[in-house]
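Exercise: predict the fold of this chain.
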Amino acid sequence: MKITVLGSGTSTGVPEYKCDCDTCEDARTFGSRNYRTRPSIHIEKDEKHLQFDLGPNFIDQIDRNKIEWIDAVVFTHCHADHISGTNDIVMPCRKQKMDMPIYGPEETMLILQRNFDYMFSKDTFQGGGVGHLIPNVVEAKFELHGFEITPIPVEHGSVNTYGYRIGNFGYLPDVKRLPDSSKELLHGIEVLIIDALSFNPRHPTHLSVGESIEISEDLKPKETYFTHIMHRLDHRYFREQCEEQDIELPENVYLAYDGQVIEIE
């Protein structure tokens, strides 16, 4: 299974608008790993392709990473940095000559149908400028194109939010608290990508680096990658930053970056 990290940044992206901090200035240089678009991944196995979330950078992300096919889209929740690029699924729909199945929490399906109502009816399909979406509410484990997918309920503000287990891979881009019942669903994973916004454990809706390390040490995956990361975390100095915060960074824990490819057998 091939996992491409399309975006690893927080909802504002990095660099932040009108920010001249050292990380943001570095992010403005070509090729910097500190350049981060909104969080999203793409998974490929046996020539089947799943897209997770459609944020505002979606079309640029799939173009930059040469994603040439999408069989279905799986949403984690309804916040704008995860759904506001939904209209741009029109291009994959047009190029692939297909309607697009989408999956996610019931609340997310309802908000998508409200915000993008014209994409749920063939009556508005004329002219080729609209993609047609087929909604599917996720409530329990399901199989999709050979992928076994388990929704992982997490606490993230006031909206219904899922992470997902896909085979031996766990993806939790937005989470503040992982209930014990959800944690049990992740035992045995080999790779974990998890929210780690900053070093601040008091943030009301996102995990901190220290909190995410604790979850990783509990689940014991072979590798853990942090996503949804803001500009206070710097790829160039992350280990030193952790030392300054009195945080011991395990050798198998890393910051994810846009364009990163992770392979799982």
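Check your answer against the key: The CA atoms of residues 106 and 137 lie 5 Å apart.
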